[in-house]
Amino acid sequence: MAAVVPADTLRIPGSRTLRFEGQDHGSGVSFFLVSNDPGQGPDLHRHPYSETWSVLEGEATIRIGTESVVARAGDTAVVGPDVWHGFTNTGTGVLRMMCIHASGTMIQENKSEEHR
């Protein structure tokens, strides 16, 4: 059965970002469709599965473990399971990025200040 999930049902309250939990919709993957202003992005965190990013618009500096990479529109980056990571919009405009979680349910551990 074909189904469309309206964007407004996925929007994080007070944000432009969408959060899709695949398990709720019969899918084996989950994603964030990020829409961040310059300087915005998540703190360091990790997942027990891989995450793949596809930059649709703008520029992101992505920290993967102890390294940082810059990804721009059209670029893709991947982080393996259990690796600390995060990203920041380091461009001058809006960052639009698809963050694909290789899991039907998002599982995230945030890195505390004492472990940075």
How does this model look, in words?
This protein has 116 residues and is mainly β. Helices cover 3% and strands 42% of the residues. It is built from one helix and ten strands. The protein has a five-stranded antiparallel beta sheet. Strands 6-5-8 form a three-stranded antiparallel beta sheet, with no helix packed on it. The longest helix has 4 residues, at 7-10.
**Relative helix content:** under 10%
Poorly predicted segments:
none
Question: Largest sheet, if any?
Answer: 5 strands, antiparallel
Overall geometry comes to globular
- Computed over alpha carbons, the radius of gyration is 14 Å
Distance between the termini: 46 Å
Q: Overall pLDDT, averaged?
A: 94
User: DSSP strand (E) fraction?
Assistant: 35-45%
Structural class: mainly beta
Summarize the SSE layout with pairings.
Elements: H1 7-10, E1 18-20, E2 30-36, E3 45-46, E4 51-57, E5 59-64, E6 67-72, E7 76-79, E8 85-89, E9 95-101, E10 109-110
Summarize the structure.
Helices cover 3% and strands 42% of the residues. It is mostly beta strands.
Structural features:
3-stranded antiparallel sheet; 42% strand; single chain; mainly beta; 116 residues
